[in-house]
Amino acid sequence: MKVKILQWHAVGSWTWDAQDETCGICRMAFDGCCPDCKFPGDDCPLIWGVCNHAYHLHCILKWVNSQNSTPHCPMCRREWQFKA
Amino acid sequence: MAMLCDPEALDSLSEDAIAGILQYWAHFCDLTDSLLSQNVPSCGLDSQLGPTIATLCDHGLASLLQDHFLQSLEEAFKKSAVKKFWQQFHSYCDASAIEKANFHEQDNWPEEILSKSLKEICSEKRSQENCLLVLVENLKSFEDRIAKRESEIEHPSSQLMSRYQLMASSVLLTTLPWDFPDILRIYFKKKLEELNSMIADGDSYELEINIHDSQNDADFYHMDTSMCGCNGLVMQIGKVVSDLRSLGFTSMAEDAYSFAIFLLLKSKVNELAGDDYRVPVLWSLKKWIRAVPLQFLHDLLGYLGDSIEYEKESLNVKSPLASQPSSFPGIGIPSEALVRWQLRLEYFAYETLQDLRIGKLFEIIVDYPDSSPAIEDLKRCLEYTGQHSKLVDSFISSLKYRLLTAGASTNDILHQYVSTIKALRTIDPAGVFLEAVGEPIRDYLRGRKDTIKCIVTMLTDGTGGNSGGSGNAGDSLLEELNRDAENQDGADFEEDGGTDEKQAWLNAERWEPDPVEADPLKGSRNRRKIDILELMVGIIGSKDQLVNEYRVMLAEKLLNKSDYDIDSEIRTLELLKIHFGESSMQKCEIMLNDLIDSKRTNANIKATLGKAAAPGSEQREMNISLDILDATIISSNFWPPIQEEELNIPSSVNQLLSDYAKRFHEIKTPRKLMWKKNLGTVKLELQFEDRSMRFTVSPVHAAIIMQFQEKPSWSSKILAAEIGMPADTLNRRISFWISKGILTESAGREPDDPSFTIVDSMADLNKNGLASEGCQLMEEESERSVASVEEQLIKEMTVFEKFIMGLLTNYGTATLDKIHNTLKMFCISEPTYDKSLHQLQSFLSDLISEEKIEMRDGLYSLKK
């Protein structure tokens, strides 16, 4: 007997491969989305700083824009710079 | 005797005079006897009677004389006429019940005997009346003479006739045999049936089903013409009635013929209504009432001379239900009696029909959309009779007896519930009766475990919807509900925030008090509009539970898809969003969005990966290319908990999967793809020497069967190790292939280690085909990609198990409410206790079955 596979429809789940579970700003799961978004994934991406801390892009942007002087990472207080 | 009558006169009388009077008296008695014995009063007697009477009256013996005469009449009447009359019926009255039935069957019974004997007795009575007239005349001539002298004398002679009538009827009534009213009823019944069939035969009465013609009065006018044919029959009946009346049986006759009419009407209702609920009968019934019983009554009353009273008042007495002024064919203004009859008959017809329909309401609702004419009829009947409570009581009892039993499937109950809602909505838009009727159904359904599942399936699944529904086949209940809602929107406006003041004022003006039957404890607000969905959710308790169940079902459905076609799911979701709000459906929306994204990503990956891997790779050799692989990539946070199982899938596929995941990582950096290898669907073709078979299976089944390519026979434990799953799980899963006749199971070397062998040729398949059928039962439970709601609940509740145990240690015993409230009070931060009382109860009963706690008299305590 031979088995011929006609179609294999697999199921997988995606994850942001961040070390932490939840965003340090909004406390929502990284694999979820920030409070302002409706859909996770492409619509609500993560961003890493040079300090290797990750946040929802929308969360950290809000934070950065609210800072008058140079913005710092909310976790480690180092100057915030987006990781290239 | 004479002395007693007039003692004063007696004093003044001499002996001679008394003797003279006595002589006259004797003469009078003789004359009376001879007058009565011969039927026709002769002139000779008449002339002798005159002076005798005058003399006796002169002596003030007028009243005595009258009494004597009446008494003689009575004797004679009793002796001859009455006895003879009743004798005619003796044979019937003495008969036993069975013999009576024989009488009933005879064609001309009791018609012949009745009309004959009535004729006899009436002629007898008439001759007696004539005799009486002779006396009356003589008395009158005497009184006239007296009146010239004394003006204030009364005229006793004028009352004689009525006294006679009274005497005759009282004689008849006191000797009345018990069965005589029955005989009359049978007579009228037979006659009316004859009349009915005559009218029905003559084409004048057609059963017109079209109710919309009902406003057209003209239909009626052609009926009276054909009545002429029946006039003979009516005359015959009229004769009997008038004879009976003259005998003083007026009320008995009326009772008898109204009984017969009602009987006929009842049988007509039964005949028309019967067990067919698809035609409205009310209109044809009304028409029939006019054509037969009313026409008959009109003719009868006309014959008896009763309907000549043209009173103006009668015009005001109208049938409340008659859509047109009560005008009758060829009659013009109906007499009051006739209008009364019409009201009585119509009420009776409505009541009969209503009782009939209420008795069969359960069946009617079972066929609901088809049986809506019957419902419509019932509605009109109830409007007239107002016996709604009868409906509620009878329907509830039939529900309890026929529907709410262990034998009925939850689906059937739900369908019946929906039909009930729809049907009762027509009868009673305010929903008061629905409230009463729905209560037992809801209570019962709450006790069933699969209720939520059935409701969700019914709401969302096209095939699960009401197939007999008005909508297209395959529409889900939800679609139907939505369509209804759209249709209703124009008609009844809801209290939207945006209604302007004028609208509000109009609403206020249209306010009507609740019907008397309404339960004042339940606010009238919520019964303004009957929302079927709302009622369904009401069974479950909260919409969250329903939404949750729907999410699980949706996940199951989506994960088992082999393509990305989710149009119908999107539509369902949109409809659910309308009812439950966007926020509660958010997770479901993300799930659907995942599918859409997956489709795009899948195409993207395959396009780029295909190019990269194109030049001769080992996959080509294995005859597996990327083309066969599709993937659904989910945002697992928003899906219900997914059941994961360890599984080693064939290396060729595994390679493909890791290539795919790698590519995903490249495209969507830094996101990673984690496979859930036990999920998904696989389409296979099994190629044997003499045949090939196609299957759509789960990856587990695919992995199992692919192992048999290398080796035709495997022992259970080795195969399990190869695939990377526990042996007992494998044994369960492999039964799928056994049931399909692809594999056979045989005892292995060890008792718990059976071996499986591939069935290569058709001959073997046939041999083994029969033995394997029992296995099919097992696969039902085996395949679920998503944890069921109950499993989820247990998982979530285990966190609180410690709390509950500690609580019971402290308190000793606690009621369900107390545990619930305590948990609510203390478990406010992670993990938050947000379960319902019902959920807690089911978790506690799980703990009881695990023998951790126990419950007695509603108090929970630790198991000692």
Low-confidence parts of chain B lasting 5 or more residues at pLDDT below 50? 1-5, 203-227, 307-331, 463-474, 490-498, 524-528, 615-621, 769-782
Number of strands of chain A: 3
Greatest contact between two chains: A-B, 27 and 60 residues
Structure classification of chain B = mainly alpha
Q: Architecture of chain A, CATH level 2?
A: 2-Layer Sandwich
Domain RING-type (chain A): 34-77
Pfam family, one (chain A): zf-ANAPC11
Pathway (chain A): Protein modification; protein ubiquitination
Protein name (chain A): Anaphase-promoting complex subunit 11
Question: Would you write up a description of this structure?
Answer:
The complex is a heterodimer of chains A (84) and B (864). Chain A has 84 residues and is of the alpha+beta class. Chain A has one domain (16-84): Herpes Virus-1 (2-Layer Sandwich), CATH 3.30.40. In chain A, 12% of the residues lie in helices and 25% in strands. Chain A has one helix and three strands. Chain A has one helix spanning 57-66, and strands spanning 2-16, 46-48, 54-56. Chain A has a two-stranded antiparallel ribbon with strand order 2-3. Chain A is elongated. The mean pLDDT of chain A is 89. Chain B is mainly alpha-helical. Residues 1-5, 203-227, 307-331, 463-474, 490-498, 524-528, 615-621 and 769-782 of chain B have low confidence and may be disordered. Chain B is 64% helix and 6% strand. Chain B is built from 36 helices and nine strands. In chain B, a hairpin with a 2-residue loop joins strand 8 (853-856) and strand 9 (859-862). Chain B folds into five domains: 7-178, no CATH class; 179-309, no CATH class; 350-450 and 492-533; 598-782, Cullin, Chain C, Domain 2 (Ribosomal Protein S5, domain 2, 2-Layer Sandwich); 789-862, Winged helix-like DNA-binding domain superfamily/Winged helix DNA-binding domain (Arc Repressor Mutant, subunit A, Orthogonal Bundle). In chain B, the strands form three sheets. Chain B has a three-stranded antiparallel beta sheet. Chain B has a three-stranded antiparallel beta sheet with strand order 7-9-8. Chain B is elongated, with a radius of gyration of 46 Å. Strand 1 (2-16) of chain A pairs antiparallel with strand 2 of chain B, so a sheet runs across the interface.
